[in-house]
């Protein structure tokens, strides 16, 4: 059942997402929303996560086209959909896409589009995007047909591929279940696949127009661009449809994994230093183990910022780390020594330091020229010389994508670090929460590269603090769900709190040294900062999850499995000989009934079930 809670409490905005239209053709079912197909299933099993027709601008922002002349015909044996999607570009340019989608029981699903511009249209990408799921698919066999007719029997990547695993694609076939295969055929252009887990998307993405070709590019006026996707299901059972089962409670069971809860960090920028000092009492209550101070000389940060950091650190009982975006306009040693002198003059003595070339925050896609940058060995050697005796970490101030593509020489580093962001490619509620599925693949890939090197993640927030893939992050003055936006309303609501606790649950077995899920104040913070609609110091729901995780840091966790990890995530803290707590988070907009299984509550031990409302978290005491 859907929730009746005020949407503003859940999402930080009164604007609700449009509910999808459910389309069926025999055993095939799909959700139609905003001109695209989502959650394409066959006999209850997910086949494809999405088939979308996307248009990107020169900063890789995704257009939200106006849908005209929408017609949906759902019949007993199948369905058809038609509409025209219109994109308005800069300088009065326009693009119209004529779309037709159809499926009949026992036949292929087709999705065809013809794009036409009367003015000419600039874009980085215009065409189909097909998403394969990752859970149950990663590492599994797949057959790829190439544009030259050659077929290749291979596997979906298990560890995350930094570059495209498959190129020059015409069709891809994989097993949905032991008895069902799915062939997705792409016509009208050359397609290739990227491993979207790089960006924490929970999918493998097959997209049109190879990245090695120039972008942005122009669609000439009056020249139609035609593409078609054909999804064919092969079912060896030839049986009737499996009846849909009623919603069952989510059951819990004890897993085998255990470990130590990570330290919790908060990032503090020079812009939020004053607000942080004013709210120092609240910071003391939260008691994070780590303060991560961000310092970027290229953005004008100087000794005043370092003095503010020193004042904040002086009242903090935990550790501190200074992350430096090294400009690399001078030799790295000269720049590092200049910053070391400023730190000494400011009285700032952090416990650790992260050094990364500023230019490495910018992504280098396939086919692009790497920007000028000193060798990382030279950068880290400069750091060791200028900041002698201090723990020196490295990695990326941006995302795992960049760390996977430019692997750092880690032998001389005390720890590895990177961030993630869930709104790089899509910003709808489902896609954002689904990024949690990708986190175990990311951490396992990092461990495969860097072994047991101490490992930190963050700051990782829903809003994007920097855009490695374009010239800027997107402003969001009306509080919408916008990809690559520098503010996001869900950060201020229960959704953000659920996302943070779910993030922690999904990364526990990575053995993180530190996890940073927010700033302290400001648009990325636990409380409102200066220049925000809310009064400075106003707490956000996210404060609850981060405070809980900070309290648990250093303690023991044990794995708790749920029967539906797409709906509910859980873990246990404490030991059988001491007090144990069960931590739960509902990552859906629907109420979820929980069956405790063999677990017993300290209070009301006879209670076997309870309900977790939309995006709710719970912490309950267990016996034994």
Structure description:
A hairpin with a 6-residue loop joins strand 30 and strand 31 (580-586). The chain is built from 11 helices and 34 strands. The strands form 4 sheets. It has a 16-stranded antiparallel beta sheet that branches. An 8-stranded parallel β-barrel has the order 20-21-22-23-24-25-26-27, surrounded by 5 helices. With 624 residues, it is of the alpha+beta class. It has 3 domains: 7-235, Beta-galactosidase, Chain A, domain 5 (Distorted Sandwich); 262-553, TIM Barrel, CATH 3.20.20.80; 560-622, Immunoglobulin-like. The model has no long low-confidence stretch (mean pLDDT 94). Helix 4 (303-314) packs across helix 5 (332-346) and helix 10 (494-507) packs parallel to helix 11.
What's the helix and strand layout?
Layout: H1 7-11, E1 21-25, E2 28-33, E3 36-42, E4 45-56, E5 66-74, E6 78-88, E7 94-104, E8 109-116, E9 121-123, E10 125-132, E11 141-146, E12 151-155, E13 166-177, E14 180-187, E15 191-195, E16 204-208, E17 217-219, E18 225-235, E19 250-260, E20 263-268, H2 273-278, H3 280-286, E21 290-295, H4 303-314, E22 319-326, H5 332-346, E23 352-357, H6 376-386, E24 391-399, H7 400-405, E25 415-419, H8 429-434, H9 439-450, E26 455-457, H10 494-507, E27 514-521, E28 525-527, H11 542-552, E29 556-562, E30 568-573, E31 580-586, E32 592-595, E33 609-612, E34 617-622
Parallel strand pairs: 19-32, 20-21, 20-27, 21-22, 22-23, 23-24, 24-25, 25-26, 26-27, 27-28
Antiparallel strand pairs: 1-2, 2-3, 3-4, 4-10, 5-6, 6-7, 7-8, 8-18, 9-17, 10-16, 11-12, 11-13, 13-14, 13-15, 14-18, 15-16, 19-29, 29-30, 30-31, 31-34, 32-33
Helix pairs in contact: 4-5, 5-6, 10-11
């Amino acid at each position: 059942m859907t929730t009746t809670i005020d949407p503003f409490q859940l999402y930080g905005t009164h604007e609700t997402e449009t509910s999808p239209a459910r389309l069926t053709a025999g055993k095939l079912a799909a959700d139609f929303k905003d001109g695209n197909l989502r959650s394409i299933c066959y006999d209850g099993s997910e086949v494809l996560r999405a088939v979308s027709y996307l248009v990107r601008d020169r900063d890789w922002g995704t257009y939200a086209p106006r849908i005209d002349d929408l017609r949906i015909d759902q019949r007993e044996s199948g369905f058809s959909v038609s509409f025209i999607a219109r994109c308005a570009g800069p300088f009065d340019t326009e693009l119209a896409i004529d779309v037709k989608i159809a499926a009949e029981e026992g036949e292929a699903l087709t999705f065809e589009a013809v794009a036409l511009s009367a003015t000419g249209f600039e874009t980085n990408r215009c065409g189909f995007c097909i998403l394969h799921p990752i859970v149950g698919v990663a590492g599994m066999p797949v057959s790829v047909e190439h544009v030259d007719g050659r077929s290749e029997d291979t596997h979906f990547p298990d560890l995350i591929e930094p570059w495209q695993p498959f190129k020059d694609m015409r069709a891809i076939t994989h097993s949905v279940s032991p008895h069902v295969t799915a062939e997705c055929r792409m016509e009208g252009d050359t397609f290739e696949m990227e491993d979207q887990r790089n960006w924490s998307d929970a999918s493998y993405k097959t997209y049109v127009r190879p990245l090695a070709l120039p972008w942005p590019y122009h669609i000439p006026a009056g020249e139609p661009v035609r593409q078609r996707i054909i999804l064919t299901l092969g079912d060896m059972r030839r049986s009737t449809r499996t009846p849909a089962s009623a919603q069952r409670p989510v059951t819990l069971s004890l897993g085998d994994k255990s470990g130590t809860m990570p330290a919790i960090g908060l990032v503090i920028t020079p812009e939020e230093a004053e607000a942080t000092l004013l709210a120092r009492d609240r910071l003391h209550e939260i008691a994070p183990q780590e303060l991560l101070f961000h310092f970027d000389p290229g953005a004008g940060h100087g000794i005043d910022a370092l003095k503010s950091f020193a004042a904040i650190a002086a009242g903090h009982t935990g550790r501190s780390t200074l992350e430096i975006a090294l400009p690399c306009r001078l030799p790295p040693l000269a720049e590092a020594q200049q910053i070391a002198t400023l730190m000494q003059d400011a009285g700032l003595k952090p416990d650790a330091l992260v050094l990364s070339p500023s230019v490495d925050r910018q992504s280098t896609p396939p086919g692009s020229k790497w920007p000028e940058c000193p060798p990382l060995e030279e950068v880290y050697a400069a750091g060791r010389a200028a900041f002698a005796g201090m723990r020196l970490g490295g990695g990326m101030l941006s995302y795992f994508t960049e760390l996977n593509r430019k692997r750092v020489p880690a032998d001389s580093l005390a720890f590895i670090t990177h961030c993630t962001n869930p709104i790089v490619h899509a910003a709808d509620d489902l896609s954002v929460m689904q990024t949690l599925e990708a986190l175990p693949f990311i951490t396992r890939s990092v461990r495969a590269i860097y072994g047991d090197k101490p490992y930190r993640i963050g700051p990782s927030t829903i809003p994007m603090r920097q855009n490695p893939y374009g010239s800027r992050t997107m402003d969001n003055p009306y509080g919408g769900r916008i990809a690559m936006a520098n503010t996001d309303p869900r950060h201020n609501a229960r959704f953000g709190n659920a996302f943070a606790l779910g993030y922690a649950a999904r990364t526990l077995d990575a053995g993180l040294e530190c996890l940073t899920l927010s700033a302290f104040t400001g648009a990325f913070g636990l409380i409102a900062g200066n220049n925000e609609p809310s009064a400075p110091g106003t707490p956000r729901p996210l404060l609850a999850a981060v405070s809980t995780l900070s309290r648990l840091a250093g303690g023991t966790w044990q794995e708790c499995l749920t029967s539906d990890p797409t709906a509910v995530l859980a873990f246990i803290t404490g030991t059988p000989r001491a007090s144990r707590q069960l931590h739960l988070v509902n990552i859906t907009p629907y109420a979820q009934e929980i069956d405790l299984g063999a677990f017993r509550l300290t209070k009301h031990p006879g209670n076997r079930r309870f309900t977790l409302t939309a995006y709710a978290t719970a912490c309950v005491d267990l016996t034994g």
